[in-house]
Inverse folding.
């Protein structure tokens, strides 16, 4: 009997079927890394998660290294789409845009234990793997540059303020990284709502003149998440 997935696939072009199958295998790679870790993830564990033969995985990705690189690109593309779409939806006010960038890092699709654990697995490998470092570095730089623009606009973009807004970007991004790590390590009691609450309070301390607007922006995030 043909199951629902097979029926869906049968009505698509070969190119579309291949794209869908590749995405399924990438998602299975994410599940494998989350379950057994980076080192223990193999073409066999991915094939088992995907419900396909190991030859099927090889057909689409050739090697484990190629599969892992595409998985990292998949994560990076999803992350970049998340923050860039949040920025596109925000007004021109730098406070709202800073809040939008921060809140985007805690969207459920981006900020969940499964995805965070896989990000940390790749970050752990990036130092010794130039390709991983390049992909991670490009993603981190694009996001940091976006935050840098808004902090410079809010604080003042002159050379005399450069150190202040540069330090502010590092502080905000460091706080976000800390919240992600806390969500990974203390997933039983520490929730995304806790992370958002802490980020709101810390942004209000960094930008005390804009505390009310920051509270308003984070309240909108809570309403959307409810």
């Amino acid at each position: 009997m043909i199951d629902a997935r097979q029926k869906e696939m049968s009505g698509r072009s070969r190119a579309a079927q291949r794209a869908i199958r590749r995405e399924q295998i990438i998602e299975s790679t994410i599940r494998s890394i989350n379950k057994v870790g980076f080192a223990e993830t193999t073409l066999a564990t991915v094939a088992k998660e995907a419900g396909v033969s190991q030859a099927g995985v090889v057909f689409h990705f050739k090697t484990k290294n190629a599969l892992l690189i595409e998985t990292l690109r998949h994560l990076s593309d999803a992350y970049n789409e998340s923050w860039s779409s949040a920025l596109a939806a925000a007004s021109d006010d730098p406070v709202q845009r800073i809040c939008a960038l921060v809140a985007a890092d805690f969207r459920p699709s981006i900020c969940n234990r499964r995805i965070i654990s896989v990000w940390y697995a790749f970050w752990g490998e990036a130092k010794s793997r130039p390709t991983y470092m390049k992909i991670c570095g490009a993603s981190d730089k694009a996001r940091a540059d976006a935050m840098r623009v808004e902090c410079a606009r809010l604080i003042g973009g002159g050379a005399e303020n450069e150190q202040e807004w540069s330090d502010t970007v590092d502080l905000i991004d460091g706080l976000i990284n800390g919240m992600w790590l806390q969500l990974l390590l203390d997933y039983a009691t520490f929730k995304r709502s806790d992370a958002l609450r802490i980020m709101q309070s810390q942004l209000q301390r960094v930008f005390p003149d804009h505390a009310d607007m920051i509270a308003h922006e984070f309240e909108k995030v809570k309403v959307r998440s409810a």
